[in-house]
Design a protein that fits this description.
Chain lengths: 424, 363
């Protein structure tokens, strides 16, 4: 018996050593324990991506995928430390806004010459998707989505407040109208008009950024001058603070609490990303959940130009990967690229033209309600210090709505600190 | 009878000592001494974590500029900028001189009080003058937050652990069970502790909010309210690190002879009186030990702030180690982060020295 076991063990070691190429994969999105290999039925970011990875592991010959811990909070710190230690994962997810930092230092592999051999057709990517993974003329990853801030709407609250027309929510077109609608909801239902994570995760920052872009302004220029303490900045911030001051929104809710408030039916609007559309759809179908009539709307234009905060998820491989390891990693990227439609089920916008035009895509729940988002998607100018800049804004904006710091002082401080970061 | 082996073949005592010490010394040198000096070396460079990993020549020697950029500023002046703290320092100086004169304070304590007071007079006096500014506007507030955290957590842990230890210092089964129960929180990891307390503090589903609501109050947003965020992480910390302090106190309590209590009882000192006049004086050394250990431990606070409040709101719970971590890993500025780490080392080193001196005083 012992012999049999030993032989089996040896054979197994030999077999896996000879046949299966291990690909380590780094990602965030959180953990999903029993994702299975069915990519067409899983729900939520974590489970959909893990089902795609599991399917790749099962279907790709000679490749076994080892998914590393999937924690959100410290993802980039971990990846950076892994790169610095010379042991980055063979494949990892990242945001487009991190490309200047990682590709700029030579950490990422330039893969424009390898795509075809791996079975990836970059011509099928939309121009914006190609742009998202491009840096100084090269291609540094395979795009997976566009994600953006949306307005998630509780239609029952809006109906009660008389803010529904032809089955669509009536959304504000100016800061004044925003306040009026919010008051209307409060008077009719006693509920808050707008909920969002203003307290921890930078959803509030993304809101203010969108409102600045809507005035054709930005927080810093391409040549590196911070422009935060401006009229546009003040307008953007006061658009939000007027709601807090009038008691029509609560700035102290964090991500989980604001989401819970919306799902409990305690707020008419939740500002959050595309990544929760399928989750909220599922929640709305659950009779135990307060939210029943769920609608998804494009971020409304309150100033001159339409704009909402957006970013892209993409998959990259380290520049140090070579030979068979690199080919195996590229195959995994190709597999993920082939499953773009499954990933779009989360609510994210697809990157492949063939997917965007398909019936499967256009018939996804609520998809027809936010078709305008792709055209108004925006982000700050590229910077190696994106993370630190977001942090400064988050801190100073929180200071305004959580600690009563004056708008002038906070924007002034934010401008100084962002300038410091740009100058470093 | 066989002759004992010649002494030439035997190791001398010194040799044996070195041999036995070698594994420790090598490990210590490799994993503590070397990294420390390496850290100091890095702090003298402009050192980008990723850039240097891909190109070892990407670092630049800048001397003490990182220290200047972190701790200093433009047009920094000295004056009575914060009257409260500096006033307190002056009072402390006067008190130490007076108490030493009338011999109410040992020489060591008088010097310690004087040094602390002097620092209180000098340090808060620095402020940016006209057109001036700190180069790093977050560093000193972060140090202040860390001090506040230590200032709240250390007495919190010490007092509650002391009271618990005094209450549980009985030889019954129930007390044994309770002792285990109170120690249990200590074995949890910081992630578990912060998760438990995040749920406890949640204004929607938390236990505390539920209790507040039962009594008709409005729940507090503990973790996102400027006034409560620091208190929240201190409460979680006290709950978490009670165990070790309690065990140390229990050990100290069991060292106090029963005779003293009996004698005290004859003088009509029982209960609280006995605690004040017998227990406390006899526990003095244990208290000092616990306090100094806690100070060193809590200066390194990271997880509670990082996981519960992300340093917010508005940086009110941003602490030194989290700032070092962010600077080093998020911003890739390893040189700057190392400079801050050296600063933290100096602070903790000071307290270690104090503990060392206190430990040697009057056996």
């Amino acid at each position: 018996m012992k012999h049999v076991l030993l032989t089996a063990a040896a054979a197994a070691t030999f077999a896996t050593g000879a046949l299966a190429q291990e690909v380590t994969l780094g990602r965030f999105f959180g953990a999903c324990e029993d994702a299975g290999t069915d990519t067409t039925t899983s729900t939520g970011e974590a489970c959909i991506i893990q089902s795609i990875i599991n399917a790749a592991d099962a279907e790709l010959d000679g490749i076994s995928i080892n998914t590393l811990p999937t924690d959100w909070g410290n993802y980039y710190d971990q990846i950076k430390a892994a790169y610095a230690g010379g042991t980055p994962p063979d494949v990892h997810v990242m945001h487009r806004h991190r490309i200047p930092e990682f590709a700029g230092l030579g950490a990422l592999a330039e893969i424009s010459g390898d795509l075809e051999a791996a079975g990836i057709d970059p011509n099928d990517w939309s121009p914006a998707a190609l742009d998202a993974v491009s840096f100084e003329g090269g291609i540094y990853g395979v795009p997976m989505d566009f994600h953006a801030n949306l307005w998630h709407v509780n239609m029952d609250v809006m109906t009660e407040a008389g803010l529904v027309e032809d089955g669509k929510p009536v959304l504000p077109s100016s800061p004044e109208e925003l306040l009026a609608h919010a008051q209307q909801v409060k008077d009719a239902t006693g509920k808050d008009y707008l909920a969002a994570d203003f307290a921890q995760f930078p959803i509030g920052v993304r809101l203010v950024l969108a409102l600045m872009w809507q005035q054709n302004a930005n927080i810093f220029t391409e040549d590196g001058t911070a422009t935060i303490n401006t009229d546009a900045g003040k307008n953007a911030v006061t658009t939000i603070t007027q709601l807090f001051d009038a008691g029509l929104a609560n700035p102290q809710l964090n991500y989980a609490d604001s989401q819970q408030a919306f799902l409990n039916g305690e707020a008419a609007i939740l500002v959050n990303g595309t990544w929760v559309v399928d989750f909220y759809t599922a929640q709305a179908a659950d009779p135990a959940v307060g939210l029943e009539n769920y609608y998804v709307a494009d971020f409304p234009t309150l100033f001159e130009t339409g704009a909402t905060w957006a970013d892209s998820h993409m998959w990259a491989i380290p520049s140090t990967l070579e030979g068979d390891d690199k080919m195996a990693a590229l195959k995994v990227l190709a597999f993920i690229n082939d499953h773009n439609i499954d990933w779009a089920r989360t609510g994210h916008m697809a990157v492949r033209k063939s997917v965007v035009e398909s019936d499967a895509y256009t018939s996804l729940p609520h998809r027809d309600e936010y078709t305008g988002t792709a055209a108004i998607a925006k982000d700050t100018p590229p910077s190696e210090r994106y993370g630190a800049i977001q942090d400064v804004l988050n801190r100073e904006l929180q200071a305004i709505w959580l600690t009563g710091k004056s708008v002038e002082d906070a924007l002034d401080d934010a401008e100084l600190e962002v300038q410091d970061l740009l100058d470093r | 009878m066989q002759e004992p082996r010649t002494s030439a073949k035997r190791m001398s005592q010194t040799q044996a000592a070195w041999l036995l010490l070698a594994p420790f010394l090598i490990t210590y040198g490799l994993f503590l001494v070397y990294p420390f000096f390496r850290g100091f070396w890095i702090s003298l460079h402009d050192w980008n974590l990723l850039a240097v990993a891909f190109n070892p020549d990407a670092k630049e020697f800048v001397g003490f500029r990182n220290y200047e950029r972190v701790m200093w500023g433009r047009n920094i002046e000295w004056g009575f900028a914060s009257p409260f703290w500096q006033g307190l320092g002056v009072l402390g100086l006067a008190a130490s001189a007076y108490l030493r004169r009338v011999d109410r304070l040992s020489r060591f304590n008088a010097i310690a009080l004087a040094v602390a007071s002097l620092l209180l007079v000098v340090l808060p006096g620095f402020h940016p003058g006209e057109d001036g500014r700190w180069y790093d506007r977050r560093f000193w507030p972060t140090v202040g937050n860390t001090l506040l955290f230590v200032g709240l957590a250390v007495p919190g842990v010490t007092i509650s652990a002391l009271l618990l230890a005094a209450a549980l210092n009985k030889e019954t089964k129930a007390m044994g069970a309770l002792r285990t129960l109170f120690f249990l929180s200590q074995v949890l990891s910081v992630t578990v502790v912060t998760l438990i307390w995040q749920i406890m503090f949640s204004p929607r589903q938390g236990l505390i909010a539920n209790i507040t609501e039962t009594f008709g109050g409005t729940p507090i947003n503990w973790l996102t309210d400027e006034q409560f965020a620091m208190a929240a992480i201190v409460i979680a910390t006290v709950w978490w690190s009670l165990g070790i302090a309690m065990i140390l106190f229990l050990a100290g309590l069991q060292d106090i002879s029963k005779d003293i209590y009996e004698a005290a009882a004859l003088d009509n000192a029982r209960g609280a009186k006995a605690f004040w006049y017998v227990t406390l004086p006899n526990l003095q050394r244990t208290i000092t030990l616990v306090v100094v250990l806690q100070i060193i431990l809590h200066f390194q606070v990271f997880g509670q702030s990082h996981l519960m409040t992300q340093g917010g709101p508005n940086d009110t719970t941003q602490v030194l180690v989290r700032y070092i971590y962010q600077t080093g890993f998020r911003d890739s500025e390893l040189g700057r982060a190392s400079a801050m780490a050296v600063f933290l080392f100096v602070i903790m080193g000071t307290f270690s020295v104090i503990q060392f001196i206190v430990g040697r005083e009057k056996k």
